[in-house]
Amino acid sequence: MNVKLNLLLANLVFFFCLFPYVTIIKTGSDVQPYALIFAILFLIYLFLKNKYIKSFNPSFLLLLPIVYSVIMLSNSFSFLLWLRSFYGYLTIPILSLVAYNSFSLLSGKILNFSIKIWFLFAIVQKFIYKFFGNILV
User: Fold this and answer.
1) Which of 51, 79, 93, 99 has its CA 20 to 30 Å from the CA of residue 3?
2) Cβ atoms within 10 A of the Cβ of 98, count?
3) Model pTM greater than 0.85?
4) 101 and 13 Cβ atoms separated by less than 8 Å
5) pLDDT in the model for residue 75
6) How many angstroms separate the CA atoms of 48 and 6, rounded?
7) pLDDT higher than threshold 70 for residue 28
8) Residues 13, 103 contacting (CB under 8 angstroms)
9) Spatial separation of the C-alpha atoms in residues 37 and 12, rounded to whole Å
10) Is 133 exposed, middle or buried (0-12, 13-18, 19+ CB in 10 A)?
11) How far from chain centre, in Å, is Cα 93?
12) What is the phi/psi pair of residue 54, to 5°?
């Protein structure tokens, strides 16, 4: 069960990175949190299972934009805009850690499938119907 959950979480993160605009629940924003949510779940699962998370040497540099974002909170006029910016900065290091820890678990079939779907949607939107697939966004 543990290996299957590991595979499932890693591939869900990969899927939602490849299809960031597919929504499960309408948020009313263009920021889609699903890749980040599954990435955090993956890291928590990995930590609980192994008691550590592999990291790469320059990964601490990816935290600098987060620190900058927190510092800028004091100068922000809108908490919602700051939160949106913070989410964007937080996504980079977390997804980098997940990619580093899950590369061997990812399925090439998902990448192949996503390339074909993106190509199909691009062809249909370009030559047949411009708004094809808008219901998924």
Assistant:
1) 93
2) 25
3) no
4) no
5) 72
6) 12
7) no
8) no
9) 10
10) middle
11) 10
12) -65, 140
